[in-house]
Design a protein that fits this description.
305 residues, alpha+beta, Beta Polymerase, domain 2, 7 helices, 7 strands, disordered N terminus
Length: 305
Amino acid sequence: MAKRVRPTQATLGQPPGSLVHVSEVYSQETTLSRIEYREDRVEETTPDASSALAPTLTGSVLWLDVDGVHDSSMIETIGTSAGIHALLLEDVMHTGERPKLDESPTSLFVSLRMLRTAESAERIDDEQVSLILGASWVISFQERQGDVFDAVRERIRAGRGRIRSCGPNYLFCSLLDAIVDHYFLVLEKIGDRVEDVYERAVKDPSRAELDTIRLLKRELLFMRRAVWPLREVLSHLEHGETSLLRPDTLPYFRDVYDHVIQILETIETYREMLTSLMDVYLSSIANRTNEVMKVLTIITTLFTL
């Protein structure tokens, strides 16, 4: 992986809307996958960028998934065909942006962090995902291959639930929900580690526990920074403050908003636990030091008699 470049370094002197990739560069090509569906039919293809949003089924919903945002020419081609403003495409390629929402007369843009537990389970793996809602389509831009959308794909293929009958609004909400629900899995892993380090710190505190507590506090702070701005985005959506959302889908956005609030509360709970655990650790070390000093004092006294 290449070193993450600061936006001020990569875009210095560039006019607004310049499509410059600001992120890590992964060793993969930008790939497109498309699912087009309606109640009675589903088609999956790997389209060209120029025709990626051209429908082939009457009255269908189209989901275009873009893996890799470093190919500026492909991003520009897709954006032109969808009528997406250059400033939004710039946000797609600047993957260090905080979660945000932007609306135009024809589209709704949301960017957020997709969090997963790394294979080592010792750190959080994250990337930016940008979702754009149009009249009959949804585009998802990801930094690299691999995501948390498999359950959504399976529901479309199998026709489970209401996803094939509720239009692009519901698909847009389903993708947001899949990302947010995965935050719970990340928090569950962190919670297990908090409980484990708590037991070790109380029974036999060592420098390793102190390092783990500091690492967990950093991870929770990182996660809070990723989730906190998303609360504002979803509050805007669940109140229906955009003309592109149908009233019948607002309860689903409200449900995602409730999940975000629950996640933030859990993050704060774990942060308070770790702060208390730091106090327990320091008290345990102080008590141990006092016991050692007592023994040394007794020995010193005996030798001085």
